[in-house]
Amino acid sequence: MSKKPKNNKKNNLPKKRTNLRSVLQSIYHDNVNLETTCNHACDCCNIAMPQINYSEFIQIATIIWKEKSHEEILNIICKSLEYFVRYEYEKWGKDTLIKPCMFLGENKRCTIYEDRPLNCRLYGLWPEEIYEDRVLKFAEAYKQYGLKREDLPLNRQCPYVKRVDNEVPITNEIIESLFERLDELDKTTGGFSSAQVRQKENYRTFHDWLLLKILGEEWLSQLTTFILAADREIMEDQIKAMDGVMRENFKTKIPDINKIV
């Protein structure tokens, strides 16, 4: 009879970061109320995971490692790998653009709602002219593939998102100040320089951050080179193979969260 895998969750608990969550909540709430009457239709969450600041990644990863099961964390790691590989439109088509949030629960509700990043909080609240400008730039980039604006995911903000408190208007200046505060926090939390922040090196998707921390920059760079050279059929086989390797390597023990955050 095979031995039952040991539960290493207790030894894998994150280091205490006593202030990070409170600092992030201060950024999200102190100067403007971003709470909404979202009806959880999840039109946004079922389509994409936004880019997030490094500090937000650290907080989300800490919560995940603390609250989710071994199997759930393993699924997140494997899904992150799939999302990383599936990014060239020429090979994957719209599958490149549709990457549902991996933190949606079985009831399609966000399982990290209190720690959701700023970009999630802002969806539906952007000044229309700013959001329109972003969509038009996105549409211009994908015009070469024959896509029209209406073909693009999230080509408009969700009409069901309404602010609970409109006392302070959400302007572009306020949004910029929120991201500036996150950038400053990243300098402390992640040791990013001002030059790196200007280059947006502290700003990635959750799945890219997670793989960077688990596998390292060199491994991801090599994988990217392979992705660019391989066709879709080969990459689909490779995704399955890498999924199997990940599940075998982390079958009894997931990566130590202290090495990630």
Radius of gyration (CA) equals 19 Å
Question: Which series of helices and strands comes N to C?
Answer: HEHHHHHHHEHHHH
Dominant shape: globular
The count of β-strands is: 2
Q: What is the helical fraction, as a range of percent?
A: 40-55%
CA(first)-CA(last) distance:
37 Å
Reconstruct the topology from this structure.
Elements: H1 20-29, E1 51-53, H2 54-67, H3 70-85, H4 89-92, H5 118-122, H6 128-142, H7 172-190, H8 194-198, E2 203-205, H9 206-215, H10 217-229, H11 232-249, H12 257-260
Antiparallel strand pairs: 1-2
Helix pairs in contact: 1-7, 3-9, 3-11, 9-10
What features would you describe in this structure?
The chain is mostly helical. It has one domain (17-124, 165-260). It is 51% helix and 2% strand. The protein has twelve helices and two strands. It has helices at 20-29, 54-67, 70-85, 89-92, 118-122, 128-142, 172-190, 194-198, 206-215, 217-229, 232-249, 257-260; strands spanning 51-53, 203-205. A two-stranded antiparallel sheet has the order 1-2. The relative contact order is 0.20. Residues 1-17 have low confidence and may be disordered.
Question: Top keywords for this entry?
Answer:
single chain; 261 residues; mainly alpha; 12 helices; 2 strands; globular; disordered N terminus
In summary, what is this structure?
With 261 residues, the protein is mainly alpha-helical. The protein is built from twelve helices and two strands; from the N terminus they run H-E-H-H-H-H-H-H-H-E-H-H-H-H. It has a two-stranded antiparallel sheet.
